[in-house]
C-alpha cells in the first residue's frame, strides 16, 4: 500500500483505514444519500405539491426558500473541502495568521453577495441565472463571453475540490486516487438529477450538520487528548515548534503572531479569488433567486458571518495540533516532518485528527471530506446544468422549450459536467497539480469577470462594449502578469514556479482589478445609460403567476391579513414591495461594509502593524472565542432551518401522508395559521391558497 501511495505522489504513510472503508463511504453512503433524496423528492411532490418536473421547482424551488434554510445553504456553499483542508494547510505553513486570513477571505464576499442577490430580486425577479441578466442587458456576444467565464470558474472550482478530497481519501484509506476522483460525483449526480435545486438545499443541510458536529467534536477532542491536555499546553507545544522550525517572514519567526508576510499575501490572494468564485458562480445566483425576497439579505448575512468560524477555529486548532505534536511518535510521519507535497495535498488535517483520535479520527475526516466535497459539487453541478439548459439550449436551440425539454437538458448537463469535472481533475493530477496549486492560482481564472458582472447589476452606465471587452482584457492581463512573474522569480514557467505565492498574488490582483480600469475607460469612450425598467420587459419565468414571481405570495398588511387581493391594490402592492426590497438593499450594503472593515481592517491590521506575539492568556482567549463561534455556527446551521418553517413543513408532509391533505388539482384542506409570513414561507413555501401553477 505504501508503494501505491508513493506512486500517486501523495504520501508514503501507511493508511490507517482499509480501502473497503473508503469505498463504503464514497460509493455506498453516497448512493444511500441519493436514494433518501429521491424518496424525499417523491414525498414532497405528493404532499406539498413540489413537482420537480416543473422547471421553476427544479431550478429555483419556486423562489420561496426561507431565511433558515437559505443561511444553512450559504454556509454549506462555502463549506468546501478546500475550507476544511486549506485552512489547516495555511495554519501549518504560516501560523495563527493563516486560518484567520483564510476565513477573512470568505465572509465579506458572502455578505456582499446579499446586495447583488436583492438587487436582482428587485430588478429582474424572473431570472434563473446571472447569465440571463447579462444577455437581457447586453445581448448575445456579452452572454457568450460571460458564459465562458462562468464555466471556467465552475470547472476549476470543481477541480480544486476533487483534487483535495481525492488526495485525503487516498491517504486515509488507500483507495486509488483516480477511483476516488471519478466515484465522488456519482451520488451527487443521482440526487441532483432527480431533485434539482431543492435536493441541493436539503443535502446541503444534512451534510453541513454532519460536518459541523464533527468539527465541534475535534474542537473539544484536541484538548482532552493525552498528548495535549489543555489549550495552555497546546500553546506551549506550538511555541516549542517555532523554536525548532522558525517561520520565515513571521515576527520573531513564531507561529503565534498575526504579523506574517506570507499569510497576509495569501489573504490578499484568497479574498480576490473568492470574490471571483462567488460572483462568477451561477449557483450563488440560483440560491438567491430560490430564496424568498425577505430571506435573501438575512440569509446571506447570517450565513456569511457564522461561516467565518469554521476555517478560523478548525484551522487554528488542527494546525496547532499538527505543529505541536509533529515530533511525537503518535504523529503519522514521525520521525520526519511533513513533506511539502503532503502539506500541499491537504494532509495536515487528517494527520492531526489521526494523532489525537486514532482510526476514529481518520474515519471522521474521511466522512467530512466526502460530505463537503459532494455538497459543494452538487451546487456546481446544478449551476452548470442551469447554464446548459437556460443559457445554451433555451437561448440558442429551442426558444419555445417546454418544462420537459428544459428538464431533459438539465439532466444532460448534470451527467455531462459530473463526468467532465472528474476527467479534468484527473488530467491535472497527472501533470503534477494538487490542492495547493489550484488554491493559489484560482483567482487568475475566476476574477476577470467580477467587476463587469457587479457593474451589470449595480451600475446602469456600464456600456455594452465595456462589458464585453473588459473581462477579456482583464483575463489576458492577469494571465500575462502571472506567467511573467513566475518566470521572473522561478527562472522558468513550470507547475512549481506558477504555484508560488508571489506570482499568484500579482496575477490575481491584476486579473481582479484591471477590468475596473478597462470598463470605466471604455464606458467613457462609448457611454450608455441603461433603464432598469427594461429588465422587466423580458419574460423569463416559465410559469404564469398572479404578480411578481418572487413577491406575489407573501405580502401581508400590519393586521396580519392578506394584504392585496383586489384590482386596485396591485399597483400599491408593487410599490410597497419595491420599497421593501430597496430597504433590504441598503441593509445589505451596510452589512457588506461593516463585515469587510471588521474582518480586514479593525481586527487584523492593528495586530499586524504592532507585531504582537501572542502570550498564553491571549492564545487561550483566541481559541476559546473561536470554539464558541464554531459551536454557534453549528446551532444556527442545524436548528434555525427547523425553527424557521421546517417543523411546519414536516407537519404538512405528515398530514399529506396520513390523507388529511390533498394537493393534486385542489386546494389543501387545512385551516388556521397562514403558512407564509412577511419573512418568507415554509421551507418550500408552495402557495397554499392558490391553484397549482400551469406551464406555458
Automatic annotation (TrEMBL):
InterPro entries: DUR (IPR031155), Na/Glc_symporter_sf (IPR038377), Na/solute_symporter (IPR001734). It comes from Penicillium atrosanguineum. It is a multi-pass membrane protein. GO terms for cellular component: plasma membrane. Belongs to the sodium:solute symporter (SSF) (TC 2.A.21) family. Residues 665-696 are annotated as: Disordered. Residues 669-684 have a biased composition (Low complexity). It holds the Pfam family SSF. The keyword Hydrolase does not apply. One of its GO terms (molecular function) is spermidine transmembrane transporter activity. This is Uncharacterized protein. The chain crosses the membrane at residues 20-44, 65-94, 100-120, 141-169, 175-194, 201-220, 263-284, 305-325, 364-390, 411-431, 437-458, 465-485, 505-525, 587-606, 618-643. The keyword Transcription does not apply. Its main location: membrane. Keywords: Membrane, Transmembrane, Transmembrane helix, Transport. It is found in: Membrane. Residues 687-696 have a biased composition (Basic and acidic residues). Gene3D superfamilies: Sodium/glucose cotransporter.
Amino acid at each position: 500500500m505504501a508503494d501505491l501511495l508513493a506512486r500517486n505522489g501523495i504520501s508514503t504513510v501507511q493508511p490507517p483505514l482499509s480501502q473497503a472503508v473508503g469505498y463504503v463511504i464514497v460509493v455506498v453512503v453516497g448512493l444511500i444519500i441519493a436514494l433518501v433524496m429521491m424518496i424525499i423528492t417523491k414525498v414532497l411532490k405528493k404532499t406539498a405539491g413540489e413537482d420537480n418536473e416543473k422547471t421553476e421547482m427544479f431550478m429555483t424551488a419556486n423562489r420561496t426558500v426561507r431565511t433558515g434554510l437559505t443561511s444553512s445553504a450559504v454556509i454549506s456553499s462555502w463549506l468546501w473541502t478546500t475550507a476544511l483542508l486549506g485552512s489547516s494547510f495555511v495554519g501549518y505553513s504560516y501560523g495563527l495568521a493563516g486560518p484567520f486570513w483564510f476565513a477573512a477571505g470568505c465572509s465579506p464576499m458572502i455578505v456582499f453577495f446579499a446586495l447583488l442577490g436583492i438587487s436582482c430580486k428587485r430588478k429582474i425577479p424572473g431570472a434563473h441565472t446571472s447569465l440571463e441578466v447579462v444577455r437581457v442587458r447586453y445581448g448575445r456576444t456579452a452572454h457568450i463571453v460571460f458564459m465562458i467565464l462562468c464555466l471556467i470558474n465552475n470547472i476549476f472550482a470543481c477541480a480544486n475540490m476533487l483534487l483535495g478530497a481525492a488526495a485525503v481519501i487516498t491517504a486515509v484509506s488507500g483507495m486509488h486516487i483516480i477511483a476516488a476522483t471519478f466515484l465522488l460525483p456519482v451520488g451527487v449526480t443521482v440526487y441532483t438529477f432527480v431533485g434539482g435545486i431543492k435536493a441541493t438545499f436539503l443535502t446541503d443541510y444534512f451534510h453541513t450538520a454532519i460536518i459541523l458536529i464533527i468539527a465541534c467534536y475535534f474542537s473539544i477532542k484536541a484538548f482532552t487528548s493525552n498528548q495535549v491536555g489543555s489549550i495552555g499546553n497546546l500553546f506551549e507545544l506550538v511555541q516549542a515548534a517555532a523554536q525548532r522550525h522558525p517561520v520565515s517572514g513571521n515576527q520573531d519567526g513564531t507561529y503565534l503572531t498575526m504579523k506574517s508576510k506570507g499569510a497576509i499575501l495569501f489573504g490578499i490572494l484568497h479574498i480576490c479569488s473568492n470574490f471571483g468564485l462567488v460572483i462568477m458562480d451561477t449557483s450563488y445566483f440560483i440560491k438567491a433567486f430560490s430564496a424568498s425576497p425577505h430571506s435573501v439579505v438575512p440569509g446571506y448575512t447570517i450565513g456569511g458571518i457564522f461561516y467565518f468560524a469554521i476555517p478560523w477555529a478548525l484551522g487554528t486548532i488542527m494546525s496547532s495540533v499538527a505543529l505541536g505534536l509533529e515530533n511525537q511518535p503518535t504523529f503519522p510521519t514521525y520521525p520526519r516532518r511533513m513533506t511539502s507535497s503532503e502539506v500541499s495535498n491537504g494532509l495536515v488535517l487528517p494527520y492531526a485528527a489521526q494523532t489525537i483520535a486514532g482510526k476514529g479520527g481518520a474515519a471522521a475526516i474521511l466522512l467530512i471530506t466526502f460530505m463537503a466535497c459532494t455538497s459543494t459539487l452538487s451546487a456546481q453541478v446544478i449551476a452548470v446544468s442551469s447554464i446548459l439548459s437556460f443559457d445554451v439550449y433555451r437561448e440558442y436551440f429551442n426558444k419555445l422549450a417546454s418544462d420537459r425539454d428544459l428538464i431533459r437538458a438539465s439532466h444532460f448537463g448534470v451527467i455531462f459536467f459530473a463526468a467532465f469535472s472528474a476527467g479534468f481533475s484527473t488530467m491535472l493530477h497527472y501533470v503534477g497539480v494538487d490542492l495547493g496549486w489550484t488554491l493559489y492560482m484560482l483567482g487568475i481564472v475566476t476574477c476577470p469577470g467580477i467587476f463587469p458582472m457587479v457593474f451589470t447589476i449595480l451600475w446602469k452606465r456600464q456600456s455594452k462594449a465595456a462589458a464585453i471587452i473588459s473581462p477579456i482584457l482583464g483575463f489576458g492581463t492577469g494571465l500575462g502578469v502571472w506567467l511573467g512573474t513566475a518566470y521572473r522569480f522561478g527562472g522558468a514557467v513550470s507547475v512549481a514556479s506558477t504555484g508560488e505565492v508571489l506570482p499568484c498574488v500579482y496575477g490575481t490582483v491584476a486579473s481582479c482589478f484591471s477590468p475596473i480600469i478597462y470598463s470605466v475607460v471604455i464606458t467613457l469612450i462609448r457611454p450608455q445609460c441603461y433603464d432598469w425598467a427594461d429588465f422587466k420587459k423580458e419574460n423569463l419565468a416559465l410559469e404564469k403567476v398572479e404578480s411578481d414571481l418572487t413577491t406575489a405570495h407573501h405580502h401581508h398588511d400590519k393586521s396580519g391579513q392578506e394584504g392585496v387581493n383586489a384590482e386596485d391594490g396591485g399597483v400599491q402592492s408593487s410599490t410597497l414591495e419595491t420599497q421593501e426590497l430597496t430597504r433590504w438593499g441598503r441593509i445589505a450594503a451596510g452589512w457588506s461594509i461593516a463585515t469587510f472593515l471588521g474582518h480586514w481592517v479593525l481586527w487584523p491590521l492593528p495586530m499586524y502593524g504592532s507585531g504582537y506575539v501572542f502570550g498564553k492568556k491571549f492564545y487561550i482567549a483566541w481559541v476559546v472565542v473561536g470554539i464558541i463561534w464554531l459551536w454557534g455556527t453549528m446551532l444556527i446551521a442545524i436548528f434555525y432551518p427547523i425553527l424557521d418553517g421546517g417543523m411546519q413543513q414536516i407537519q404538512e408532509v405528515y398530514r399529506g401522508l396520513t390523507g388529511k391533505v390533498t394537493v393534486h388539482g385542489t386546494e389543501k384542506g387545512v385551516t388556521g395559521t397562514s403558512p407564509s409570513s412577511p419573512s418568507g414561507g415554509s421551507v418550500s413555501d408552495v402557495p397554499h391558497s392558490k391553484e397549482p401553477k400551469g406551464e406555458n
